[in-house]
Design brief:
The protein is mainly α and about 375 residues long. Helix content is about 70%, strand content about 0%.
Length: about 375
């Protein structure tokens, strides 16, 4: 079995292991907070004046993660991504950043940190220490503070910050960021909390701001209507004994997407994508050893492509990369590779054609050769 996420990521491994790696974890936390002002602002992250600070912290995070790669194997339900992939993500984020493509670097870093922090706050005392540390470094901009809390998965804190930000629109909040607030609310209430009533309430509060852009007000109204239709529906739960039922559920709900047809302008589909994602994540949390994992990773990449489409997080790329690297012999690996190649091509193709960074190109070649090798 591959080793799972290193200890700077997984803090729920018991008090003995926690004590052994605590100094490294504390150093990692220091680097995280050094990056805080830049993680929440693409303008600051991409500003050449901040290059040395950002690049220095990225390099130190890579060094720390490598030191923790030799711990004993950890088994943790619900973790989709191995330590190898997460470390590759960190190296890729730094290499791409150093290559001048800092916007994509930020995208990679956010998704990587979010996966890491899914376990960070579950260790002995780690949540309390992290919260106390953050209290002393709260950002004055409510939206930016919400972005940081969202990345580190303090969702309840993030929602409070977002609520404050959107209520004050247009003060200190752009129209683009106001839309991000709504998308974050969808992700939290549908994918994480499974609370359509809570989503309806949040959207109702959003709509009270009469200064919101007309297109966003309409979007909020449509999403609220879609949530009303779904609020009485339960999230299906599947047992390991009925995996074929899970397959049918995923494939029927992602029928168009599996055929390459995506509808990013439908409120109903937007909520449906996140509901499917929540069901799949819950199944993996309950049955981390399922033989359906490569398929689930592929389905997740499709169900969360809405967020990749809007360039907020790169979870789909993470899922697809893990699918190929961990399960190259699976029949679905070829599809994961094809989807990953398409995402990379779209991301790095502009008016001058495709300009894929060397670090990304090298990773892609490794994946291609791996799939080719096991299928020859």
């Amino acid at each position: 079995m591959k080793k799972l996420i290193p200890y700077w990521v997984v803090f729920a491994v018991g008090s003995i292991a926690f004590t052994q790696v605590k100094p490294l974890m504390d150093q990692m936390q220091i680097e995280l907070f050094k990056l805080k002002p830049y993680i929440v602002s693409e303008v600051k992250y991409t500003d050449p004046k901040n290059h040395d600070v950002v690049d220095g912290s990225l390099k130190r995070m890579i060094e720390l993660s490598q030191k923790m790669n030799h711990e004993s194997m950890i088994r943790r339900s619900g973790l989709l991504v191995s330590s190898d992939v997460l470390n590759q993500q960190l190296r890729e984020a730094e290499a791409v950043y150093d290559n001048g493509q800092s916007a994509y670097s930020l995208l990679i870093l956010k998704s990587t940190l979010s996966v890491c922090m899914s376990c960070h706050t579950q260790g002995p005392g780690s949540s309390t220490r992290f919260s106390e540390f953050n209290k002393n470094q709260t950002l004055t901009n409510s939206f930016e503070e919400g972005e940081f809390l969202f990345v580190v998965r303090d969702f309840s804190g993030a929602m409070k910050a977002y609520d404050k930000a959107i209520k004050a629109y247009p003060s200190n909040l752009s129209a683009e960021d106001a839309e991000k607030v709504v998308l974050r609310q969808l992700f939290y209430y549908v994918r994480v909390k499974r609370d359509f009533a809570g989503l309806i309430n949040a959207l109702s509060e959003d709509s009270k701001n009469q200064n919101l852009p007309e297109h966003l007000s309409k979007k909020i109204k449509d999403l609220k209507g879609a949530a009303e239709k779904l609020k009485k529906e339960k999230y299906p739960a599947f047992k390991s004994s009925n995996e074929e039922e899970l397959r049918k559920y995923a494939e029927s709900n992602l029928k168009d997407e599996l055929a390459g047809k995506f509808n990013f302008n439908s409120a109903d589909r937007e909520l449906s994508y996140l509901k499917v994602s929540s069901v799949l994540h819950q199944y993996l949390q309950n049955y981390p050893g399922t033989h359906l994992k490569p398929d689930i990773l592929y389905w997740l990449s499709l169900s969360e492509s809405r967020y990749s489409h809007d360039a907020f997080y790169s979870f789909p790329e993470l899922y697809l990369k893990q699918c190929v690297l961990e399960f190259p012999k699976s029949p679905i690996a070829k599809k994961c590779l094809t989807e990953y190649q398409d995402l990379i091509a779209v991301t790095f193709t502009g008016t001058k054609g495709a300009q894929i960074p060397e670090a990304v190109s090298t990773q892609l070649k490794t994946m291609q050769e791996l799939v080719k090798k096991v299928n020859d």
